[in-house]
Amino acid sequence: MRTTTRLLTGSALAVAAAGLLCAPAYAGDTDGLAVFPSSVVPGGQVSVSTAACGDGSTAAAGDASAVGAGAFTLAPGTQDGDATGQFRVPSSAQPGTYEIAATCAEGGRRVTGDLVVTLTSQRQPAVVHPRGSVKTGVGGALGPDPVQTAAGVAALAVAAAGGTWLLHRRARGDGI
């Protein structure tokens, strides 16, 4: 009983200590800049939003110069507390991860979000359907040569007929 109590107490203390050690990892900026889509091809439209600027009645200045799009404005959004804006990624943008920033008009708070520029769109992955036969080395029932298929069927028929005839003779007692 004492061993079980010690084990449970020790486990509870270990879990509590791990929770205390990991808590600061999540205590970062929860009101960051949301970038949608987070991955885009050059020439694509990007929307950003943030709730970091207060009640949403004020605008914010956006900065996408890292990707080459320049400045844009975040206006009060339709949802309570959100400021939203849009910009277009230049068609000359190179693949990579870029920091997009917004500075609140009141208070000057700066929030950031990441944008990934890729050369291929990840919205609709290419669906590949299998075609052809499987190369197993055994062959198939319907091979590419109908003459070989017919010869194989004939050989199986002869073997089945011969086996039936031999079993019938053995059952009658004629021997082999």
Q: Helix/strand/pairing class, anyone? A: alpha+beta
Q: Please, how many helices?
A: 2
Provide the helix percentage: 25-40%
Write down the Rg. Answer: 36 Å
Order of strands in the sheet with most strands = 1-3-6-5-4-7-8-2
Order of helices and strands: HEEEEEEEEH
| Global mean pLDDT | 76
Strands, count: 8
Largest sheet: 8 strands, mixed
What this model shows, in words?
With 176 residues, the chain is α+β, with helices and mostly antiparallel strands. The chain has 2 helices and 8 strands. It has helices at residues 2-22, 146-172; strands at residues 34-36, 39-40, 45-50, 60-64, 70-76, 83-88, 96-104, 110-117. The chain has an 8-stranded mixed β-sheet, with no helix packed on it. A hairpin with a 5-residue loop joins strand 7 and strand 8 (110-117). The longest helix has 27 residues, at 146-172. The protein is rod-shaped and about 110 Å long. The protein starts with a helix and ends with a helix.
What's a quick, concise take on this entry?
27% of the residues lie in helices and 26% in strands. The protein contains two helices and eight strands; from the N terminus they run αββββββββα.
Topology (elements, then pairings):
Layout lengths: L1 H21 L11 E3 L2 E2 L4 E6 L9 E5 L5 E7 L6 E6 L7 E9 L5 E8 L28 H27 L4
Task: Tag the structure with descriptive keywords.
single chain, 176 residues, alpha+beta, eight-stranded mixed beta sheet, 2 helices, 8 strands, 27% helix, 26% strand, rod-shaped
